[in-house]
Amino acid sequence: LEAAWVLTNIASGTTIQTQTMVDKGAIPLFIRLFGHKHLKIAEQAIWALGNMAGDNIEFRDQIIEAGGIDRIIYLYTRIKNQKSVKNVAWALSNLCRGSPPPNYESVKLAVPVFGKMILDESDSETLSEALWALVNLTDNQDDEKLDDILTIGIIPRLAQLLQHKSLNVVIPTVRVLGHVLSGAKHQTDEVLKTDAVAQFRRLLSVKRKLVKKEVCFCLSNITAGTSDQVSHVVRDEELVKKLLDIALNHEEDEIKREAIWVLANATNHGTEDDIYTLLKNGLYDVFLVLLDSQDIKTVLIVLESLLYILNAGKHAYRTEDGENAFLIAAEKMGIITKVDKLQHHPHREVYRKGLMILETFYDMEPLI
User: Fold this and answer.
1) What is the mean pLDDT of residues 284-292?
2) Would the CA dihedral through 256, 257, 258, 263 be positive or negative?
3) Angle of helix 253-269 relative to helix 227-234, nearest 10 degrees?
4) Over the range 245-279, which residues count as b (16 or more CB within 10 Å of their CB) and which as e?
5) Is the pLDDT of residue 122 over 80?
6) For residue range 302-328, what is the model confidence (pLDDT) as tens digits?
7) Do 146 and 180 touch, CB atoms closer than 8 A?
8) Alpha-carbon gap, residue 174 to 169, rounded angstroms
9) How far apart are CA 324 and CA 237, in angstroms?
10) Among residues 266, 183, 172, 184, which one has the least CA distance to residue 219?
């Protein structure tokens, strides 16, 4: 045990020191120790390999190739106390992170283990390690990987963890859900079966900017889906009002844009009735201000969304005189006047999108 302690301390040193241990055959030695009859020795080996895996991806890959994943999973079945489970979660998570990431097929056996930890454990550090591991493993939003997340049955638990008192748990939970929501229709639907949208609404009131950004990313993935999926966001009036407030009043353009994307996607993928609901809740009021934004990306998002809105009005929302009700409302609000003025905008794409709106809905040359 004392010898294992010494080697663990060396493994937490510099890369050169760790490399010396690796060259002397430390990796297979520690892996063999996972099966030691004395759990304290096995747990010490976990610390050593966790340090190695976290040092650089070469050590990580060598541990994986030597069968480290399987042996850590075996050790997990033997341990009972919370501290040891936390150490296993940390070491296993280190084997699943890094750039480039490990080959998924080599580490996918760890996914059910992380799932079990998320379902069974209450320690916030253990939960955080398991969640960040799943974030890293699903970072490219591959459908097969996302289906593995669905298979282990943790989606309802993830929705519950959105209420966790620690942001160290909440943030990776939101990130995992964001990855799932970026996947196929059936994957998004699994999240929408829970109360995740209601929890997202609550989290938009959290002051931490990263939380707002990640929640908006989740919501924009929902509103980029089917019209049925869009309705889960649009028909939550309190949620829509929070998004409009962020889009209008948040001090950072990046966070504003994330909120605008949620709303803009809804105008693209939602029904005409969904668009009407957004307008009734004040979408045009926000657009009127944002068309004067110095942030080019924001202006472009608004113009693109406006085009979808006006097309929807042309086909489905007309006045008694047969006029485009959404276009008339935009005129009365002064939005079309601002679009017309954008023809003098120095950014070519802003000018082009503004001109497209005028040419599509007016049989005349621009007024300015």
Assistant:
1) 96
2) positive
3) 130
4) ebbbebeeeebbbbbbbbbbbbbbbbbbebbbbbb
5) yes
6) 999 999 999 999 988 888 788 999 999
7) yes
8) 9
9) 25
10) 266
Using alpha carbons, select from 158, 183, 152, 188 the residue that is nearest to residue 172.
Answer: 158
**pLDDT for res 235:** 95
* pLDDT grade for 366, boundaries at 50, 70 and 90: very low
- Give the model's confidence band at 14: pLDDT under 50 very low, under 70 low, under 90 confident, else very high: low
What is the number of other CB atoms lying within 10 angstroms of the CB of residue 146? 22
Q: Are 287 and 302 in contact (CB under 8 A)?
A: yes
**Averaged pLDDT, 169-198:** 97
Cβ(118)–Cβ(81) under 8 Å?
Answer: no
| Confidence check: pLDDT of 6 > 70 | no
Hey, is 88 helix, strand or coil?
A: helix
Q: What is the DSSP string of 93-108?
A: HHTT-SSSPPPHHHHT
pLDDT of residue 28: 84
CB-count exposure of residue 116 (10 Å: 0-12, 13-18, 19+): middle
For tokens 């994957």, name the residue. Answer: 187
Query: Within 13 Å and on the Cβ side, how many CA atoms surround 163?
Result: 10
pLDDT digits (tens, 9 = 90+) for 342-365: 988 999 999 999 999 999 998 755
User: φ, ψ for residue 324 (rounded to 5)?
Assistant: -70, 110
Q: What are the backbone angles phi and psi of residue 295, rounded to the nearest 5°?
A: -85, 110
Q: Which residue has the tokens 């905008």?
A: 345
Is the pLDDT at 72 greater than 60? The verdict is yes
CA dihedral of residues 45, 46, 51, 54 (deg, nearest 10): 140
Look up residue 126 and give its amino acid. Answer: T
The residue type found at 288 is: L
CB 44 within 8 A of CB 8: yes
- Interacting residues of 281 by C-beta distance below 8 A, sequence separation 6+: 237, 240, 241, 244
β-pair partners for 324: 318
